[in-house]
Each structure stands twice: as structure tokens, then as C-alpha cells.
Amino acid sequence: MTNAFLLTRQWRDTRDGVALDLWWATEQGSCWTQITGQEVVFFVLREQAAQIKLLISRLRQWRMAEVELKTFLNKPVNALYFKSHRSARDAQDIFKQNDIPFWESDIRPPERYLMERFVTAGAQLDVPTQAFSAQQPIMNPRIAPLADEQSLWRPGLRMLSLDIETSMDAKQLYSIGVWCEEGKRVFMVGEGTDTELVIFCVDEKTCLQQFFVFLQQVDPDILIGWNLVQFDLLVLENICQRLKIGLQLGRANQSINWRHEEGDGGRSFVVIPGRVALDGIELLKAANHQFQSYSLQNISQELLGESKLITGSDRGDDITQLFKTDKLALADYNLHDCELVWKIFVQQELLAFALERSQLTGLLLDRIGGSVAAFEYLYLPRLHRRGYIAPNLGEFESDVISPGGYVMNSRPGIYDNVLVLDFKSLYPSIIRTFLIDPCAFWLAQHNQLDEAETVPGFNEAYFAREGHILPNVIEQLSAARDRAKQHKNAPLSHAIKIIMNSFYGVLGSTGCRFFDPRVCSSITLRGHEIIQRSRDWIEQQGYAVIYGDTDSLFVWLENNCVGKTPKTPEQCNSIGKRLAKELNIWWQQTLRDEFNINSALEIQYETHYLRFLMPTIRGSELGTKKRYAGLVEVNGQRDMVFKGLENVRTDWTQLAKEFQMTLYRKIFDGEDYFDFVRNTTAQVLAGERDLELIYHKRLRRHLHEYQKNVPPHVQAARKYEQLTGARLRRGHWISYLITVNGPEPVGSDDINMALRQSPIDYQHYVDKQLTPVADSILHFMDESLGQLVESQMSLFG
């Protein structure tokens, strides 16, 4: 048996049935396997078998079989098998016309073949080594999941970083840059003398053909880039179509396949047989990295401390000018972009993360998002072993409304010594502890289990103690994450965390076929109860809980210490560790006594805030939710932490962020802040802080879609189009200032560019940026920005 990792999967109808084309990476190189004679299968009610046979009697090459499966309503089903997808689709059309229900028709043959064998990505192929060939398929090998001792095996994949340069309209190809361990090249259109790195090509067609030859020679498994599919590959496809040649990226000379979403701005998806196209932007988002801008310039600056060789708003014109006058300089720029992408992938371990996610979920390496698909891939084969088929999307009907996470009313104020106790993966641990699971819910209903055989949920839901699926999956994932941490496998640990935390979101999503508000409310309402009872227990220990948010509790240690010296950091840390340990013990005993279940709940002592602010809602004495700030000390270094406040909001100016950081720090440290507030206000009004006044906001829709309420950044964007003739789309960032004549756009590099037509409205920035930030904390000092500024002015009056 040979270890293998799935790269791509495709399928098609043939005369002999459905054929599956699976490309693998192995220790011996790439491998193409083909599984023939497969059938398309879905399920129908057994009670309608006679009617169904009559309805599809004229269709060819199908069969029906009784199977030991039933629906979530406990009705037996038969399986319908078709030799071709076309016949299966014809049958489904007939059933829809006659109101005949059917299930699992959307599971494609490759996914069903692999999931029913519990193969996610890693597998063992029963093929002789001498049979390996990247040009001819190995026919019908036995495929099995990786053995336990091989579960951590991963292939050594070869990456190639790809970037192209084009004219502004992306219709003319200038160059193709590639960066990989086997070599670095720029294929440049135009005349010139070849160098070690730059290959000159007489025209676009020759440039593409030279690139194709290089690609086949180095034979990478993975193509990486920045906006790789939505720009580089799509542009190359359009140019190839114009030149009437194929975009020859696949292995074994196989054609690539495109799928395009309909509508303006729809995404494009590509399948490259034997190779995977991975986009750096999409992978960073999938790994839960968050940045204000995902441009290569911004990300390389933040992560690498490096910049692109050409920056600025006129980059497109600069590239065209280099193409005309200095092709070697353009080649340097092109190749440097490839290098930046390569470094980001290596530094952030993005390929390793993609491998681990694929192995955990069955999602292909290039699949972005797909939490529902990942859940179903893991759940369906286990559900079938329990004797059930999956429901159709939207099949559950219920009047129950599932609430979100519990957010406690806060106690506003400035506090010394606040601890944060946090439940580790609260929702997954609730699922695991209380055996919450769609299949367990059905089993309890259909087998009419008594109280001793079930664990109660909420909204009349209850769950079988035996036969559940999801709690076992989470237990296995949790154990795997612990092992990953022990082996310092950060990508695997991170991937497992994301997958586990997605399970509740999937069950609570109407886009999931298993959505049932009785099941998902049994998770969230149990979370409400756990947070509230934990708060009560902590307060019984003599401490105050000033806030709670879904899975965290904020504990004030000085509530009964008026007039006393505040506790030292060492004392606070000791209390935090003790509270976490004792609360875990209390929950273990409580759940054994009340439900006879083992607790998987784990509360951790997470943070000690030396000083902590819980602000009020503006214009109210009520405390806010999900907004706070605090001062922490780590390894002797004091740092500010902001949650939900202006400092972490992308739609607030740099002025507000820096003002808030400094003002809060001064107050927390007990420093004088009067002069700082007054001087900052005076500098703004004097025009000394103009570069910090720019707003940056992304267009969430196309400009023509904003009709009634037109926000400031859209007003600025429309003026930008009028002034420059450029066309802005959904997703573009707008930089603008508020002037005496309303919002006006500015250039990205120079605030004094001709785009701004009017004087800046400085009072707007005092009223809308400085005042809200200052008053949110000065309120607790019985002061306001207005009072401080007025008192200064009265001194000179």
C-alpha cells in the first residue's frame, strides 16, 4: 500500500458507467487513478416503490434495492442506482413533476465514493510502485483511509508562485513570473537579450508556450499566487482564448475546467487536473487571519516588513511605462511579487494549514469556506451506519427560535484587577457533554427512550445516550488537537480549532440540511445556563462578575476591598488559577449529580487586566456589550487591549485610534491627561494632523445599488469616478476626507492631491472623532472633552 494525498477529483459519464478521475500526491510522485463502473445513487420512500417503477420504466440502466436505511421521520427507504448522471437527473425531473420526494441527490459520485470509505484526503492506494505514471491512469486500485500509524503522514508538495503583469485593461500580456525551488524565471513579451532570469519572447503566444514548457518541466503540485484564480488565471484563460490556444496547466495534457458564478462580480472556480491553485488571500481568511486590507502590499508590509517594488495609486501606469522603456526593471518587479507570495506562504504555513484542513474535513485543498460541506462529509457516512439518510435542505419545520450566545448586562466603570475566565471551545464541549446530535435526537424519538436513556436538551429536545455521532467526532478531534499541540504542529492544531468551532454555526444555519432549531437551541440555551450558573458560583466566592460574553466571564477582584491596597499581580494570578480549577471541579460534580454525565467543560484563567474600562452606551448610563479596554502586563511589558472600540475599527481615522490609545494609557497609568486632550484638539483645528484624518471604507455593494441612504464613502466614491474617470466596483477601498462641502476622495499617497476640492471640516473631526473617544472614558472622571477645552479657553479669555 502506498500513502497518497488527494489533489483533485473529477467525474464523468461513460458508456460503462460513471468514471472517477482522482489525482494524488505520493512519495513516488504524482499519481492518476481512475475508478470505473460507478453508479449515481439517491434514496426514495419504500412505500412509493411501485409508483416509482412505473414512472421511470422508460429510463434505461437503473435499478432499485431495499436498504437498511430510513428518513429522519422513521420511514424506510430504497436506493435508486443509475449508470449515468443524465439518467439520474431525468428521473429526478420526473419525481419533481409528480411530487415524489427523494434524498441525497446532491452528493456527487467522487464525494460519495470517498466518504463512504472514510477517506478525507490522505489515503492508501493498493498499487505496485512500477505502475506509477503521471500520463496514464491506474485503473480501479483499492483505496483505503490512512492507517492510524500513518495518520500524520503528509506529502512533500512542490509549490510554484505565479504572477502576471498586464496592461491596465488586463487584455495585453506583458510578462509571466514564476518562483519555485527548481528555478526563477520571468517570461517577458518583447525583444531583448535573455539573462539568467529573464526569457524574452517575440509575442504573447510564445510567452505562454515558454511558460507551459517550464511548468511541465518543474511539474509543481501547487500553484500559489495573490488573487490567483480571480485575476491571473482568469486573465490567462481569456488571452489564450483570444490566441486560440489552450491554457495548458493540467497534468497528462488534460484540459482545465472553469465554473463561473452568474451575475456581475460573480466568482470563478477552476479545476486543474493534477494540480491545485491556492490563493493567498483566501487561505489567510480561511485561517481566520484578519487585516484591514488584503492587498499584497499591505500583507507583505505587515507580515514580512517588505514592500512591493512599485507602490502607489498609479501602479498600472508605472507598469506599462516600464514595459515600454525598461523591461528588466519590470521583470524585477514581477519576480519580487512572486517572492513575496512565496515568503508569506512559508512564514504563515498556509500550505500546511490547507493540508491539515483537507485531511480533517474531506474538502479539497482549494475549497474556500465550505463549513457545511465539511460537516456533511464527516457526518453522512456515520449517519448511514446508524441506519439513517440525510434530510433535504429546508425539510425541518419548527416554530422554535434558536437564540444566540448569552451576553450579560455589563457594569460600566473603571476597575482595578479584572480577571477573564474563559470556557475553552464552549459550544463543542457542550455538544460533547450533553450528547447533542441530530441522529441522537432521532434515535430518542423513534425508539421512545425513557429518561434514563436520554439527556435532556431544550424546547422538548432530548438525546440518546447511545448511538450519537457528533459528540464522538468532537471527542476525537479534541484528542487530535491535544496531540498536535504536544508535537508542536501549529497548522494542525489551528485547523482542528476552526473545524470544531464551526459545528455549532453549521447546525444553526438554515443552509445546512441538518438545521433543526430544537437541536441548535439546546446548545445555545445550555450555554446561557452555564454562564449564568458560573457567574452565581463565582459571586458566592466573594467576587463580582461585571460582564459575561458567550463563553467568558469578567471577574472584579476588588469589589469588597474599598480602602484597601489593590492586590498584586501575583495574588490576582493565584486567584484566577484557583477559581478556574475549583469551578471545573464544581461543574464535574454538578453534571454527575444532575444528569449522570461526564463534563467536558473546561474553564481557563485567561487574562489579568491591571486596569479595565467597561464603557457606557453613548447617551445612556447602561453598560455596553462586546466593547471594552484594559491594561495587561506580559513578561514585564505593559500593553493596551481594545475590544470593539474605535482603536480596532477600520472605519475610524488614525487620529481617533492614536488619540484613544494614548488617552486611555495615561488614565490607566494615573498620568495627567489634560494637556494631551487640549493640545490634540488644538492641533486638529490648526490643520497640523491632516494626514491622520483620512477615512478608509470598503464598498460593500456596487455604486449604483446605493439609492436611498448614500453613506459618506459612497458619496466620495462617486466623486472619485467623476474626477478620475475610473470605475469602482464592490470590494474597492475608498479613502476620503470630510470637507466643508461633504465627503471628498483623496489619493492614497498624498493628501494634497488634486482630488480634494474643498477645505477640511476640522470641527467635524473634533465632534465625531475626538469627542466620542474622549468622553467614553472621561465620563467616569466626571469630565468631558468639551469641558477641558472650554476651561483652557477661559484661561485665555
UniProtKB/TrEMBL annotation:
One of the record's GO molecular function terms: DNA-directed DNA polymerase activity
DNA polymerase II insertion domain residues: 41-87
Catalytic reaction equation(s): DNA(n) + a 2'-deoxyribonucleoside 5'-triphosphate = DNA(n+1) + diphosphate
SMART domains per record: POLBc (SM00486)
Enzyme Commission number(s): 2.7.7.7
Matches recorded under InterPro entries: DNA-dir_DNA_pol_B, DNA-dir_DNA_pol_B_CS, DNA-dir_DNA_pol_B_exonuc, DNA-dir_DNA_pol_B_multi_dom, DNA/RNA_pol_sf, DNA_pol_B_thumb, DNA_pol_palm_dom_sf, DNA_pol_type-B
CDD domains reported for this sequence: DNA_polB_II_exo, POLBc_Pol_II
Gene3D superfamilies membership: 2.40.50.590, 3.30.70.2250, DNA polymerase family B, C-terminal domain (1.10.132.60), Helix hairpin bin (1.10.287.690), Palm domain of DNA polymerase (3.90.1600.10), Ribonuclease H-like superfamily/Ribonuclease H (3.30.420.10)
Domain DNA-directed DNA polymerase family B multifunctional: 376-778
Keyword Transferase assigned: yes
Enzyme class: transferase
DNA-directed DNA polymerase family B exonuclease domain span: 103-299
Superkingdom classification of source: Bacteria
Keywords, sorted A to Z: DNA replication, DNA-binding, DNA-directed DNA polymerase, Nucleotidyltransferase, Transferase
Family membership noted in the UniProt record: Belongs to the DNA polymerase type-B family.
Name of the featured protein: DNA polymerase
Organism encoding this protein: Cellvibrio fibrivorans
